[in-house]
Amino acid sequence: MQDNGLTTRIILNVDDNATDDTCIKKSDLTEEGFDFVKKVYDKWTDKVVDKEISSTNFKLLDKALNEIKSKSK
After folding, report:
1. Could you tell me which residues come within 8 angstroms of residue 5 by beta carbon, excluding any fewer than 6 positions away?
2. Is residue 30 left, alpha or beta, with left meaning phi > 0 and alpha meaning psi from -120 to 50?
3. What is the mean pLDDT of the chain?
4. What pLDDT was estimated at residue 71?
5. Distance in Å from the first CA to the final CA of the chain
6. Helix%, strand%, coil% for the chain, nearest 5
7. What is the phi-psi region of residue 52: left when phi exceeds 0, alpha when psi lies from -120 to 50, beta otherwise?
């Protein structure tokens, strides 16, 4: 999300890994970022947790990002 301009601040630096303490608040997201989270983030994480897809499979996220970005043009 950060690399695609969907956050209002730096959540993680390049060499940082997300931990249990990593937190993203609504105020950390742009309007598009919040739309992205509402649209797809939970669906993607559920599929990762259920081992339906790998955590490196971003097809679902990329599709949602492209749809959101195309609406803002």
Report:
1. 30, 32
2. beta
3. 93
4. 83
5. 18
6. 50, 5, 45
7. alpha
The label of the residue with tokens 């983030």 reads 41
Which of the four pLDDT bands, split at 50, 70 and 90, describes residue 18? confident
Encoding tokens for residue 71? 């609406």
Residues 73, 48: Cα–Cα separation, whole Å = 31
Give start and end residues of each alpha helix (H) in the chain: 31-36, 42-49, 59-71
- As given in the structure block, the two tokens for residue 67 are 């749809």
Pick from 15, 47, 11: nearest CA to 26? 11
> Which residues make beta-bridge pairs with 7?
29
